[in-house]
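Checklist before submission:
- one chain only
- standard amino acids only
- sequence pasted in full

Submission:
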Amino acid sequence: FSIDHQAVIEDLMASQSCATAQEALTRICELAMGRWDASRCLAELDVFMAHEQVIQLGRTEHLTEVFTSKSTKDLEQEISALVEVGLDSRKHRLAARHIDQEFDRLESELRRKLGVNVSLAQQRKAALHIASDTGDHAFVEGWAGTGKTTMLSAVGKAYKSNGFKVLGCCQSAAASQNLARETGIPSNTIASLLISIQNNKTKLTPKTILVLDEAGMVGSREFGLLQKAVTDAGAKFVCVGDPKQLQPIEAGGIFASLMRLHGKAEISNIQRQRTDFEPLLDWLQKHGHGKASITPERAQALRSMPEDARMSAMEELCAADPKLARGFSKWRARFDYEWMREAVEMFATGNAQEALELLDTKGRLKLMPGSAQAMEELISAWDADKTAVDRKTIIAATRAEVAQLNAMARAALISKDLINDARGIEAEIIHRDESTDTKRFAPGDRIVFTMNDKELGVANGVAGLIRDIDMSGFGPVLAVELDDVNELGETIVRIPVGFARFDHAY
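Returned file contents:
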């Protein structure tokens, strides 16, 4: 009996760009189970670590050996070399005035509506980095909720007004639809775009700007294929994301490496943990006067702004009057969730323990002695919460826990007659790993789709509500109201139960 070390390397590198000696030992032990004892497996690890394809990278703070494969390292060096070649290229550069004009227009429009100064400084700086300061590649790091879409929308408009074609891509269909909807940049999944380029349906040219969103989730091989298509066409590659967002499914880590080697712009003011401005807007509509009077147009303008700019504008509106200033201070003490942004920053920078302690202090985290009790309390709190079902989400670690929590949530909704289970059907569904389950679905159920199907008008990750089940044809058909309009402009789609690529979504 012998172990194919090359196969072990390929197996480990298929899902990551580096691995630990412990992971290699685990794989060796799995392959040698029943044949070798522990000492023989440890000896085999020493031989494995000396393999010509294994490149040792050093040790972690816990003294664990880390390595990569020669082929992965070679690929990432090739990608970096291509970035280096195009660093000084000027063929895609815009004069700074084009970006400034776009942001001046946006800030001026907000200023006109609000009567106060508005600043989108971080988004402007990142946009200038992309369009005016970089060559054939540009990298922007932005944590979740920092206003990347505001920046990309402005960049897209500036490039289009100068004769460029701007395209976008993301790893998932749901993300690409969001990118298109929020920025106006036509977008596809990476896989769809690569096939379209290969089949000459999409042609990249020197006047093309390709935006890769959520770049931190893209693996090295996929990134390399996109980069080759872009550089072969003489186009520009703009990569935006958070390298700490999620480990890529495929071998990756390339986005963080390229930013470290070749520079980046950064947007770090977190805006997605939103402060509740509505109570203040309501109060100002009743008590505001003069400069601080809130018309419907002003209220809409405030709602459209990135949150840091909105906070500054609201503070300036209230500062001129002592009564309004006191009201602003009271509102901020109660409704400003600055601490949430602090928690997100802690998680993003690796300080999870501090973040969890802060959440605990604020009453947003509750530790339970066991999973069964935690599930019961979670469902009880979820059921008691008055937020609409499509605006709250339960998250669990395993598929089994997700299924159990979905079943408990369904039971709670059925007891309130929010799900018409009497008209329900049993349906076999197919999971992403191709395993199957039989579950019950009824009008009132929320479901999430787990596969793209353009003909049906659904995308992986898109959710909706079952409005009806049509039993009049050859098989049951679900009438599903989507949470967002699909690419076909539809809000209601008809899904044959035989499609099977959906599941409960609570």
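Reviewer check: The CA atoms of residues 166 and 209 lie 5 Å apart.
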